Amino acid sequence: MSETLLEVEGLAKHYPVRAGLIRAKQIGVVRAVDGVSFKMKRGETLALVGESGCGKSTTARLVLQLIEPSAGSVRFEGAEVTKLSGAELKAFRRRAQIVFQDPYASLNPRLSVGETIMEPMEVHGIGDPASRRARAEELLRLVGLAPYHAQRFAHEFSGGQRQRIGIARALAVEPDVVICDEPVSALDVSIQAQVVNLLRDLQKRLGLSYLFIAHDLAVVKHVADRIAVMYLGRIVEIAEKRELFANPRHPYTRALLAAIPHPDPARRGKVKPLGGDLPSPLNPPPGCRFHTRCPYAQQVCKEKDPVLTNGVACHLADQLPPPDLDFSGGLTEKASQRLALYAAAAEG
């Protein structure tokens, strides 16, 4: 797992805000993603976490070139993706697929399940009709469905089954990397367990790499190898999973972990609550974007924008007091019930 598969550097997406009768005047820019950088190794799962609206899903679509970046670089096996077009871009998309968040909206209601899974193979010219049908049935078995389900339509399935169909569709062209855009957030907890276990099993069987976008840290702890924390369009901390939960270095990471419910409130310790509201990406604060809510902010935080160094973007990372909340232990207890469901689902 040492080979770098995907490398993102300085990735940005800015949306102009216009006003006027014919919207001819630009009055501002929404900085949805503003300088995201990370590397992903072959065979690993990199989780991207943060509050809603921080730019996680936009980053996923930028990596796949579903939307055009305003700046930055995306390299896949060393080749620059942002400069690809036509047949070259089509070839890249065969090797990089996405599982969307909403299993109800991501499937075409006019196509049967078999047609849905075969469509990517037809687009990329893989096999003949007979082999594509056989491949679709094989994929249905792989994701825990039956071959006869190929004749049915999306509305005949539950949310968990639809997400399995979405996973089968993503795997149809045998990709190297799959972007999972909050693939279990719309599902019940027991169904989440089944889908998460399925993703892990498929990764072991097929050697897949995942960019896993989520906000449920119990799920992230179960599936990720490394975790990148996003805030207002930027990554503020990135670390190995065990290190991040055992020793969160950025105040925002601590706040995210502290927000996880604990079965025993007396053991949570004293956590300084975040102040204020999430700033607007239309008008981000100067300096560190988190300083308006950070309980440790100093004058340097208001004036100077921190650079991601040694895995953290914080001027005070080496000066913060040790956390008085047992993040790793607390999360382990919190996650134990969820993980018991995962184990039961795997055995069943």
Widest sheet, order of strands: 6-7-8-3-9-10
Q: What is the 3D shape?
A: globular
Low-confidence stretches: 329-336
What kind of assembly state do the chains in view correspond to? single chain
Task: Please characterize this protein's 3D structure.
The chain has 348 residues and is α/β, with parallel strands linked by helices. The chain has eleven helices and ten strands. Helix 3 packs parallel to helix 5 (159-171), helix 4 crosses helix 5 and helix 6 packs across helix 11 (327-347). The two termini are 30 Å apart.
Present the secondary structure layout.
Elements: E1 4-19, E2 25-41, E3 45-49, H1 56-63, E4 71-76, E5 79-80, H2 86-95, E6 96-99, H3 113-123, H4 129-142, H5 159-171, E7 177-181, H6 189-206, E8 209-214, H7 217-223, E9 226-231, E10 234-240, H8 241-246, H9 251-258, H10 299-303, H11 327-347
Parallel strand pairs: 3-8, 3-9, 6-7, 7-8
Antiparallel strand pairs: 1-2, 1-4, 4-5, 9-10
Helix pairs in contact: 3-4, 3-5, 4-5, 5-6, 6-11, 7-11
Quick tags:
4-stranded antiparallel β-sheet; alpha/beta; Rossmann fold; 348 residues
Brief digest:
This protein has helices at 56-63, 86-95, 113-123, 129-142, 159-171, 189-206, 217-223, 241-246, 251-258, 299-303, 327-347; strands at 4-19, 25-41, 45-49, 71-76, 79-80, 96-99, 177-181, 209-214, 226-231, 234-240. The chain contains eleven helices and ten strands.
